[in-house]
Amino acid sequence: MENGTQILRPTQDPSECTKEVKSLMWVYVLVGNIVRGMGETPILPLGISYIEDFAKFENSPLYIGLVETGAIIGPLIGLLLASFCANVYVDTGFVNTDDLIITPTDTRWVGAWWFGFLICAGVNVLTAIPFFFLPNTLPKEGLETNADIIKNENEDKQKEEVKKEKYGITKDFLPFMKSLSCNPIYMLFILVSVIQFNAFVNMISFMPKYLEQQYGISSSDAIFLMGIYNLPPICIGYIIGGLIMKKFKITVKQAAHIGCWLSLLEYLLYFLSFLMTCENSSVVGINTSYEGIPQDLYVENDIFADCNVDCNCPSKIWDPVCGNNGLSYLSACLAGCETSIGTGINMVFQNCSRIQTSGNSSAVLGLCDKGPDCSLMLQYFLILSAMSSFIYSLAAIPGYMVLLRCMKSEEKSLGVGLHTFCTRVFAGIPAPIYFGALMDSTCLHWGTLKCGESGACRIYDSTTFRYIYLGLPAALRGSSFVPALIILILLRKCHLPGENASSGTELIETKVKGKENECKDIYQKSTVLKDDELKTKL
After folding, report:
1. Alpha carbon distances (Å) from 347 to 3, 337, 363
2. Residues 406, 305: contact at Cβ < 8 Å?
3. 73: buried, middle or exposed (CB in 10 Å: 19+, 13-18, 0-12)?
4. Residue-wise pLDDT tens digits, 211-269
5. Which end of the chain has less neighbouring CB within 10 Å, N or C?
């Protein structure tokens, strides 16, 4: 009904539905991510190698923990910014948002995803400036006062490096690659990292979607809660892990045991999340009949009933309403509503013949809430997630030190870079693809685009979604403990730096003390000679 007059809309002309040339703006996003990755990747691998080379043996875990903490504070601020952007409509400034009939909790809502890029691009330019002022090399921490004594040694090393540079990088690249590939601890650590990173990329990428579908909250709230509950415990865990390594001077073997057993503890704690569940949203025609009886399978014909089959209601439209009987309907038309009052998101539908209730049957826009019990389960899940994040991050720095110290010093930059490359190529790229395909397999109702093509999924089977979201990462992480245990066995037979509570720094300091003792002996001998000469003259 438009202006009180019934309008019969003709079937859309097929020529109007000809597919237009799709926008290629996604290419700019792709190229932007490639350039960003080129600038971002060297900072973390090479920066960590930089710290490990020039910091004291016992201090480098703390410094690396602080760097990793900074790498978490950034996403924390980013998630808070994303939560704000997701709460702003994508076309804000171009449309009148007061006329919108959807809210951020609606699956059709699209947030202002582009706004964050403008802010972050400006901040990235500013943060890049200090890197231009970093020196090419630094004196080893703790030896600044003895710089004159070790000056000759540094000069010799620089001469050797100049000779090596004449041959180019290719001469060292292949031998280093061969050495790393023949290092069983290093290769097993990469395998563990790839498997675990597959699990964590999936969990982090799809956590907002999981919170939306499982607990019925908006995407902006899901992103906000994810940032507040998960990232601060990770920051604290990194710092405490680094402090423990520094305070107790943990050796590589001890660090490997700490990392492995803390990860196992967090893994066992993770299974409690299977108990924190909510029921599916009851949507009539999808998983519930018009009589309110749950049904397992989605059947297209169940969308219509005897009383609305002749109402010419569209079967593929997704414009859900919540009836005062606690059930949701795909549209007000399928609920049999005849009149409405109010405008925008405050619209209320009345005289709905398919809503079976004792009083006046009415409906409001949106899916029905899942109730207070589901909100309580959400709190339990978030608390458990915070505890798991803290325990796992506590093990992260000890585990990372195993990676750094199972390699030769000259191989660290290449080794850390290769480790980052493998985790991104074999986990960061494929994991969201196959995991997203599995998520789509749980979809109960797909949206429909203008020309009849399938759009985004509007509602998932939350039970199956939960089993895939929690189950697949659990299986992946469980398999990663096999190579982790092999690493512990191999470390028992290896001799690595830091096992005798000594370090390269202490060896150099011993040389310095030796040279100082030599100076004292020469001085004493010269004093004796002068006394003898004096006696002779007398």
Report:
1. 17, 12, 9
2. no
3. middle
4. 988 998 888 888 888 888 988 898 898 889 888 888 888 888 999 999 999 999 999 99
5. C
